[in-house]
Amino acid sequence: MPRGEKTKYTDKQQRKAEHIEESYEKRGVPEDEAEARAWATVNKQSGGGERKGGSGRSKGETAKRAERKDSAHRTADARQGKSPNKGSARSSTSTSTALADMTRDQLMEKARERDIRGRSKMRKNELLRALS
Helices 124-131 and 61-79: crossing angle, nearest 10°? Predict the structure, then answer.
């Protein structure tokens, strides 16, 4: 059973969770399990509740976008039977997720290594964009 209140989720996220839950129930998954899987899916795709006053661990839009893209690529690869370690053409997408987890100072060091112009005045999101 999913824990916590769901008031921090947008209406769109709640509708998405309901739709996913119904889909699981049609496939014979028990109601509690279907609800838990649905909220886990919404959290994975969007990073959790998006209303103000959330968990305090919010990620920037750029980081969320990079993680969603990476997740979608891994799902597509899995459907085609590719294992994550087969050296697919998307090896750089895992880098973008790793970049999103870095601090600004770590990103600045990478930007320095790649000699990116204007890096000293960039914010973390701008560094992420420049490096990916």
Answer: 30
